[in-house]
Amino acid sequence: MPDTPPIPAEQPLADPDPPLPDQPPQEPPPEANANPSAPEDYPMIEVHPPHETIHTVKDFLIHIAAIAVGLLLAIGLEQTVEYFHHLREVKEIREALQQERQRNRAFYNVNTAGFRYEAEELENNLHVFVFLQQHPGTPEEKLPGVLAWGFAHAPITASAWKNAQQTQVLGYMPSEETEANAQLYVLLDLVDKDALSAMDAEDRAGSYASVDPNPSHMTPTQVAAEIDLIQDAMRTNVNWAAHLKNLHQGFPDFSPAPTDNELNRISGWVRSAEDNKKLQAAEAATDSVMAPSYTALRAAQKAAYGH
Question: Distance between CA atoms of 229 and 201, rounded to whole angstroms?
Fold first, then answer.
């Protein structure tokens, strides 16, 4: 058999892309933007530190100054926004307080009329019981009047003021305005409390009716006790009127107010012309004794209230 020819040695594979001489390496192509609308359609403001190296003190100071100016601008912008926000809050509080003040003025009118009604009612009742005291056993139909028990009172409203106190808005209002509002609501609160006291005093005076509404059935002791209760109700009614008058003096837009003549008459201090004439000398002596303290009192009142 002929000899098998030898297998030739395996030749190395040729490089399909031999590098070209002196050719710079190619950069990979940029990646396609997965969200083409993000950077192009919505550009963002970026803040970068300076790319240049700071070499001198001047460069450093300029860099610090730029940062400081930026911070001041940001703080100033924030404070400006807060300022206008507080202006809007103050405007809203003022409007609410003004509306509440208008309602309280209307309630003040009701309370002044209620005081006058209460005063005449109690004077009528006192007249009836004094007559019954002087003429025990007089039948009810022969008394100089019928007894009347009623009370008219309009409670104040203070919701806007209370809401304002629970916020920091009052701190952005002028102090004079805030103090005036605070004084107004103090006086309104006093008027309200006096009205409740006057109503309670009248309830006590009229409580006899729960046993027997006919005053002619009362014993002389019961009649005397009833007169005391009516006089106490009249005093509380005068206190109510005094605070209504004080409120008007401090805030004249609350009107009409009870007058000094009304209070003096109800309190029993009104004297006849004949009595006043007889008392002229004695009154002059008293005035001379009281003059220094009266002058000091008026000066203190003028300093405190301005009138």
Answer: 7
Domain count, the chain: 1
User: Over its length of 307 residues, how does the chain's per-residue pLDDT go in tens digits?
Assistant: 444 444 344 444 444 444 444 554 555 554 544 444 444 444 454 545 555 565 677 766 776 777 777 777 677 766 665 655 556 878 889 999 999 999 999 999 999 999 999 999 999 999 999 999 999 999 999 999 999 999 999 999 999 999 998 887 888 888 899 999 999 999 999 999 999 999 999 999 999 999 999 999 999 999 999 999 999 999 999 999 999 999 999 999 999 999 999 999 888 877 888 888 888 999 999 999 999 999 999 999 889 877 6
Amino acid letter for position 169: V
Query: Is 278 among the domain residues?
Result: no
Q: How many CB atoms lie within 10 A of CB 245?
A: 17
DSSP characters for 57-123? HHHHHHHHHHHHHHHHHHHHHHHHHHHHHHHHHHHHHHHHHHHHHHHHHHHHHHHHHHHHHHHHHHH
Query: Among 151, 203, 252, 179, which Cα is nearest to 244's?
Result: 252
Residue 151 counted as domain residue: yes
DSSP conformational letter for 136? T
Collapsed DSSP state (helix, strand, coil) of residue 279: coil
Is 54 among the domain residues?
no
Residue 27 lies in a domain: no
- What are the start-end ranges of the H helices in the chain? 38-41, 57-134, 159-165, 175-205, 220-250, 260-267, 273-278, 280-305
**112 is in which domain, residue-wise?**
71-271
Per-residue tokens: 79: 């404070």
The number of angstroms, rounded, from the C-alpha of 126 to the middle of its chain's C-alpha atoms is 41
Place of tokens 């550009």: 43
> Residue type at 140?
E
